[in-house]
Amino acid sequence: REKGIPKDVDVIINAGAADTAFSGGREWLDEDIVTALRRFVWQGGGFVGIGEPSAAHFGGRFFQLADVLGVDEELGFSLSTDKYFSKEQEKHFLKEGREENFDFGEGVKNIYALSDETEIVEYSHGEVHASAHPYGKGRGIYLAGLPYSHENTRLLMRCLYYSVRKEGEMMRWFADNPLCEVHAYPETGKYAVINNSQESQSTLVYNGEGKASQICLDGCAIIWNTI
To answer: How many CB atoms lie within 10 A of CB 65?
Structure first.
């Protein structure tokens, strides 16, 4: 808190249930903290909130960074206010390349969008489960939950890039198969392609220079290549 946000941090993730150490609890009532985070995103940083991010009931909001996220949680105090914004976007960067439906685990109920600026990525049962919201030069991303799976690791990756408006850079070092990933070491002139499953996998790999090639890997295999 005293030192502020380090200059080499691009994205901040806040994940957890309200009133827990993971979410932050009443620490979100600290004006210095919320101001620093708003400034961070406004200047181009990313904020990814999962579950009940920045949750502390105060000032007519439950999510203290609702203005950044573009969503808030209905606690029953504003039931008389119509929730007009519910149109899910058919196409969105966070949806691309998915072979399965979203899995938010237990998720969070009663999340609603605050304005038509909120990009609703998944909406069902009368509530928002995934969304993105522009805030200055950065973006706030909301996910109702993120249980571990290969598909969700890819979703998180997309959230990170999209939150800082660098989605065009994701394909620099990239494997289109979510069971595989690329680790680049430009200072050594090498990169590794990893199969995170126990079965053989085929994936299209981008090598950092816009060149793509098809690679087949045995289960749990690592292949090293030269840039």
So the answer is: 24
